[in-house]
Amino acid sequence: MPEPTFDPALPDPSPAGNESPLRPPRSAWDSGGDRSHVKTFVLASVLMAAIGLGALAVHADVRSLWRQKFGPPLTTDELRARVATCERDGDLACAQDTLTTLLKRHPDDGVARAQLGLVMHHRDDDAHAVIEFKRAIDGGEGTYDLFAWYADSLARMGRDAEAVDWSYKSLAIVPKLVDVRGKLAKLLVAQGKPYEALSLLESFDADAAAGGHPGYFEGQRIAIESVLTTGAAGASAGSEAKSLRLPAFGSHFYAPVALGSGRSQAFLVDTGATVTTVTPELLDESKAEYRVLQPVVTMTTADGRKVTAQGIRIASMTVGPYVLHDVPAVRCVHCIALLGQSSLSHFDLRSSRAQGVEFLTMTPRGGA
């Protein structure tokens, strides 16, 4: 026999107060209306809760997010952890907001302030980034990367002179930062100081060559030399017409020197050497004119070695933008290229040290 059915559109045939044996017992949620509304509400609530929990679950810092939205303020450690999570996720706005909150609680946290400046820099907000970098430095923070990022933001704001200073400070801490060195050279060229830029790059490449490694800045050096050759953007003029500033590399200074019409090379400035020293390779590559004055000369190198050389006189050579003529020198196979007093006597030399950065300034005398 088929199961009896109940049509909800008809009146309830059971006596008042009794459930019909044909109708299922009422749910406690059913007040007499259509129970599908209750079911829909419950299912929707469960679904929404599941979606919400799922959204929380995909966030790497659920506890911090929940506390930030619904609970008490995050602790300092939780704020730092949240900054790391934001940066790992590439959410710079989140990192900036969290760092700002952290600094309101700990305004003397120099590391967090420097980190906030870096986030602002990456968000192209250099105007505020330089403020935070400066506050961090004024508070005693002093790392090479802080100085480098500060220089970058200053340069992007057109404050090139300050950017040059802070780039040099960064290199004073870590001289082998090639990215900082390359950017600094570009700033120097833009300021009309291409020979200082060449000294900056040539000294690095000379040190690399001494260690058996290829030069890193060969292409950039060629670009600067081409600007000097064509005189583009007034590169050969400017402040270097009066004096040439050489930045220190290690404990030495290197001047950009070209023999004849050859390429510029790094020459070690040696005030204790009597004459300028060149190698046969440099003479051959430059095709510079010279004549031999003493076929055999015995000389003592800086490390005490006795070597045989030739006394020569070079027709012309340039030190930075300055041309020297008939320069006494020695041609030495086992020596390094250096400027001795036969060349340096044409200049007044002044060394200076400013905030950890050393320079040698060469000012030509009347004959140069």
Can you offer a commentary on this structure?
Helix 7 packs antiparallel against helix 8 and helix 9 (178-190) packs antiparallel against helix 10. The chain is built from 13 helices and ten strands. The longest helix is centred in the N-terminal third of the chain and has 23 residues, at 36-58. The model is unreliable at 1-32 and 55-60 (pLDDT under 50). 45% of the residues lie in helices and 21% in strands. Strands 1, 2, 3, 4, 5, 6, 7, 8, 9 and 10 form a ten-stranded mixed sheet that branches. It is an alpha+beta fold and 368 residues long. This is Retroviral-like aspartic protease family protein. Residues 1-34 are annotated as: Disordered. Pfam families: gag-asp_proteas.
Radius of gyration: 38 Å
Structural class by secondary-structure content? alpha+beta
Instruction: State the end-to-end distance.
Output: 124 Å
| SSE pattern | HHHHHHHHHHHEEEEHEEEEHEE
Shape: elongated
Mean pLDDT: 84
Strand tally? 10
List segments where confidence is low: pLDDT < 50 over at least 5 consecutive residues: 1-32, 55-60
Strand residue percentage: 15-25%
Major sheet characteristics: 10 strands, mixed
Fraction of helical residues: 40-55%
| Count of helix runs | 13
Region (Disordered): 1-34
InterPro entries: Aspartic_peptidase_AS, Peptidase_aspartic_dom_sf, Retropepsin-like_bacterial, TPR-like_helical_dom_sf
Biased composition (Pro residues): 1-14
Organism: Scleromatobacter humisilvae
